[in-house]
Amino acid sequence: MQLPSCPTYDGIVSSETNGAAQAQATSQADDLLGAGRSAAVIIASTSAARGEAADTTGPILVDWLRTRGYETPDAIVVRDGEPVGQALRALLIDTPEDERPRIIVTSGGTGLAPDDRTPEFTAELLERQSPGLVYAMWRKGLESTTSAVMSRGVAGVRGRSFVINFPGSKGGVKDGITVIDDLLEHIQTSIEDTTDHGPRV
User: Which residues are the signal sequence here (predicted)?
Assistant: First the structure.
């Protein structure tokens, strides 16, 4: 014989289960690398900014950073050239230092066209560059295409913000994520000066 269900009891179980699931999700979110930190994505694409083409790399980058726990708004899409510099200055200079994104990733504007000036605008705002990260992305990209080395992107730090230029292609962005994701924790702890460097040998 099937016993009648007890609405009150079922409700308690459901509430406790939901509460436990929410608590677990909160705990897991707190354990993510980017917890309590923000990030930003800038897409340099004149055609996307004009609405003539879809932004194909912004959603990939935003999803990656959100998955790592960073509070990341939708990508900022701007025309190539000076608008990229304006977007970077807004985040790195106009924004109060304690509110600036810890991670800023750009995509596009790293080639040889006259208005591909993302690296120049980025470099002038950095206090220290990290060329090894760019070399690593070139190396990864060369596994798929020789044109990977044409990307002129730069990477580096201003204050406690890490900035890196990714290519404008989906393949280049995915290669960049593959390289940087493994190093992201070290990058973050280094610029926040929370690592124990150990003895110098």
Answer: none
The CA distance from 57 to 59, in Å, is: 6
Where are the chain's structural domains? 35-191
- Contact yes or no for 163/106 (Cβ under 8 A): yes
Which residue type does 183 have? Answer: L
Pick from 94, 93, 116: nearest CA to 106: 116
pLDDT tens string 45-81: 999 999 999 999 999 999 999 999 999 999 999 999 9
Do 151 and 110 touch, CB atoms closer than 8 A?
yes
Of 63, 62, 76, 168, which is closest to residue 118 (Cα–Cα)? 168
Give this prediction's pTM: 0.82
| Domain 35-191, CATH number (from 3.10.20.90, 3.40.980.10, 3.30.420.10, 3.30.230.10) | 3.40.980.10
CB contact at 8 A, 101 and 38? yes
Closest by CA position to 111, among listed 50, 168, 154: 168
CB 28 within 8 A of CB 60: no
* Cβ-Cβ contacts under 8 Å for 44 (sequence gap 6 or more): 78, 79, 80, 83, 84, 106, 107, 108, 109, 116, 118, 168
